[in-house]
């Protein structure tokens, strides 16, 4: 009878132990499964964090490249790039749980969408700038050619103006001097004797010039005797920085045709020797000659 009780107690103990063993195995399996799940989730979140960080890094690199092109959109691109940099800093500090990673992925998607829009605008702007640069370069070439042509024409006009100015100057020719003796009858007899001379005559010719300006012309005639004295009225006049003392002035009505001019300078006791005649126009020497009285 006692053996039967002992056997029943043993069976009961074995049954309890079996139940405990099964419970332990179930608990261990559950714990192991939970740990595996947590590890898997951690691995997944870390991979996702790295993925988002890489995508943000690529986005920043895209903005850096666009900003380096220095377009008129640089300020907008810099603002968007700074948003990416700030998000990368926040992500780096985060614990990387599923909820926060989802939030960062959403923010990345929004930034990426903005980037696509800005990049499209930037590309259009670059194309427009390229077109404008080409047009500007073409314009510069045309302007350079025009400038060269203008400079050439200006040079030609200047040379032409100089030629016209030179050609429009009147030429004084055939300047000569001589002496005459006056008879009581009024007749004049040419002489080369200083003692007989009563009048010195100056002759010159103003040549025809069709491009010269017509009108009254004034010439200053300077007669200098062998003793270096200016004869006649000895008028003094200033032309610019120069002062001229001359014997008399001649006014001529010039109409672009040849004009022969003859003027007499009366005097007495003329000295022997060489006499010099200088013709000036507004202080500029235009002709000269000399003659001798014995």
The average pLDDT value, as a whole number, equals 82
Q: Mind describing the biggest β-sheet? A: 4 strands, antiparallel
**How are the strands of the largest sheet arranged?**
2-1-3-8
Tally of helical segments:
3
Number of strands: 10
Instruction: Name the shape in a single word.
Output: rod-shaped
Helix content: 40-55%
What class, by secondary structure content?
Answer: alpha+beta
Description:
The chain has 294 residues and is of the alpha+beta class. It has 2 domains: 2-126; 172-293, Immunoglobulin-like, CATH 2.60.40.2560. It has 3 helices and 10 strands; from the N terminus they run H-H-H-E-E-E-E-E-E-E-E-E-E. A 4-stranded antiparallel β-sheet has the order 2-1-3-8, with no helix packed on it. Strands 7-4-9-10 form a 4-stranded antiparallel β-sheet, with no helix packed on it. Strands 5-6 form a two-stranded antiparallel sheet. The longest helix has 71 residues, at 98-168. Mean pLDDT is 82; it is low at 34-40.
């Amino acid at each position: 009878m006692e053996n039967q009780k002992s056997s029943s107690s043993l069976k009961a103990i074995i049954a309890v132990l079996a139940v405990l063993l099964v419970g332990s195995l179930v608990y261990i399996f559950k714990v192991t499964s939970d740990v595996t799940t947590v590890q898997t989730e951690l691995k997944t979140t870390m991979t996702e964090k790295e993925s988002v960080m890489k995508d943000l890094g690529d986005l920043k690199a895209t903005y850096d490249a666009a900003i380096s092109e220095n377009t008129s959109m640089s300020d907008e691109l810099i603002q968007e790039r700074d948003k990416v940099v700030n998000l990368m800093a926040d992500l780096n500090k985060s614990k990387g749980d599923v909820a926060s990673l989802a939030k960062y992925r959403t923010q990345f998607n929004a930034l990426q969408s903005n980037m696509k829009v800005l990049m499209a605008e930037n590309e259009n702007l670059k194309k427009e700038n390229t077109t404008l640069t080409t047009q500007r370069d073409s314009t510069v070439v045309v302007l350079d050619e025009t400038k060269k042509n203008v400079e050439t024409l200006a040079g030609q006009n200047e040379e032409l103006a100089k030629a016209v100015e030179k050609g429009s100057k009147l030429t004084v020719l055939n300047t000569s001097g001589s002496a005459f003796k006056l008879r009581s009858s009024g007749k004049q007899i040419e002489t080369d004797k200083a003692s007989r001379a009563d009048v010195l005559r100056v002759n010159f010719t103003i040549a025809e010039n069709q491009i010269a300006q017509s009108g009254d012309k004034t010439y200053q005639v300077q007669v200098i005797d062998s003793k270096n004295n200016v004869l006649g009225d000895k008028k003094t006049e200033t032309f610019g920085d120069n002062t001229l003392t001359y014997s008399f002035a001649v006014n001529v009505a010039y109409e672009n045709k040849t004009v022969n001019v003859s003027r007499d300078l009366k005097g007495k006791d003329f000295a022997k020797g060489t006499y010099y005649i200088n013709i000036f126009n507004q202080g500029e020497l235009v002709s000269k000659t000399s003659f001798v009285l014995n």
